[in-house]
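Thought: the user asked what Cof-like hydrolase looks like in 3D. I have the sequence; next I should run the structure tool and report back without guessing.
Action: structure_tool
Action Input:
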Amino acid sequence: MNRNTGFSFPLRLLCLDIDGTLLNTSHQLPPENRAAVHYAAAQGVSVCLLSARPPQAIAPIAQALGVPGVIASFGGALIEDGVQRIFDRRLPEDTAHTVIELTQQNEISLSFYRDTAWFVAQDDKWSNAEGEITGLRPTCIALEHALAAGAPHKLLCMGDAGRIDRFYQILQAHGVQADLLRSKDEYLEIVPQHADKARALREVCRYLDISPAQAMAIGDHDIDCALLRAAGLGIAMGNGSPAARQAADWIAPDNDHAGVAAAIYHWLKEETV
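Observation:
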């Protein structure tokens, strides 16, 4: 932790990352977290689920949570409230083309996401593992054909951590016009510039007429760092990456010990003191 909180009571918005944060390591929603989010909503706090997942992989979590709210998917590139799209950004087609070529040259597993479609060139252990986590199955298609039908909201590169480290450097060397974000050691998320989770927080706040200073954000990995800094109160999970923990104002217990619930009760109770 490296900053003093700019949090302003009362809390009006709760932004939650999903994997590694709201869900435990078995990708289940702990009942303690569900109860705590309901407690916050009962105090008049709006809820936003903010994840690198595609929207159809967030929907079952939102349904299980049972609290209406805004959903920001693809790391913030697409924001919806169930009725309308609040924000929609795509990767430039030439950027997507470059990434597709580079992944083929460097044997990186690539997933192409656009709206509710998930495309892969071929199934492999990485796409199978992602499917197990999200409950979705990709469509196998030549990714250049997928690109011809429309630009993606997100490209997801998957591979062993060392290979992803090297590929990150390759993308930087090619000057790829996109934000390169690590959501876990084996995942590199490629999303439109200026469409990260921090931008998503600001767009949601604008939509709900809430100051970011009255928002609490909870996350666990590098992809959440900008979000944690943009919120009035940024909270990293105990299982969070070093970068996420450094960006936060407060450290919650880990995701196998209902860290989200602990953070909500700690800060909402402090607000009422």
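Thought: the tool returned a structure. Summarizing for the user.
Final Answer: Structure for Cof-like hydrolase predicted. The longest helix spans residues 93-106. The chain has two domains: 13-88+195-272, 93-191.
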